[in-house]
Write a structure and sequence with these properties.
By secondary structure, the protein is α+β, with helices and mostly antiparallel strands. The protein contains three helices and eight strands. It is elongated, with a radius of gyration of 19 Å. An eight-stranded antiparallel β-barrel has the order 1-2-3-4-5-6-7-8. Helices cover about 15% and strands about 65% of the residues.
């Protein structure tokens, strides 16, 4: 429910953004927003997260959560960019006051359409490392693995430097390592567990 409310807020913000874009075409057209050179960009993203591990984990860990991501990207030309993204989301569990933390590091390739327009749709894909951790006092349990990421969305550039956008990302994860720590005592084990995470994100970015 919390994730649905968060996604609704993100969608409302995106709708307001599109309304603003439609209401001020002359301002957008007058802005110097063309991507005619290579460069670095940074982004801060608020995400609504939907998490699935397996049947047992889904019962223990609430599917819906929210969090933040940081994006560091390099634009090679008007349509192609590479981006390093890291962050995570917090999900409640059925045990009061104990949360599960999902975290990720991803390397993504972006292909952007309409590079000479303020409104720029894109598709993206890549791979990453993912983890899920539950910590309570001296007990720390976590699982980690790699996976693939696919998604798409849009950015609206208000100027050459600033943009606001919305995107949807789906991560397909294979958890292959588990660890349980109790104080200085730690046990590691191999896993073969499929999982997934889907996020809806609202991003503010700055291009240098």
């Amino acid at each position: 429910m919390k994730w649905k409310k968060g996604c609704a807020a993100i969608l409302n913000a995106a709708a307001a953004l599109l309304f603003l874009a439609a209401a001020m075409p002359s301002v957008a057209a007058a802005s110097d927003v063309t991507e005619d050179r290579a460069g670095i960009y940074l982004g801060l993203k608020i995400i609504g997260s939907s998490l699935h591990v397996d049947e047992d984990e889904d019962i223990f860990i609430e599917d819906d959560g929210g969090g933040l991501q940081l994006d560091f990207g390099y634009r090679f030309n008007p349509v192609f960019a590479l981006e390093l993204s890291f962050g995570g989301a917090t999900h409640e569990t059925i045990i009061p006051d104990i949360d599960a933390n999902f975290y990720m590091v991803e390397l993504l390739a972006y292909y952007r359409f309409l590079p000479d327009k303020p409104f720029r749709p894109f598709i993206k894909g890549g791979f990453g490392g993912y983890g899920l951790e539950i910590e309570e006092g001296s007990v720390d349990a976590k699982i980690e693995g790699g996976g693939l990421a696919l998604g798409g969305g849009f950015r609206y550039f208000f100027s050459r430097h600033f943009a606001l956008g919305l995107d949807l990302t789906h991560n397909m994860i294979k958890y292959d390592k588990g660890q349980l720590s109790l104080g200085e005592f730690s046990i590691e084990t191999d896993l073969d567990e499929d999982g997934s995470q889907t996020s809806l994100g609202l991003t503010l970015s700055y291009s240098f």
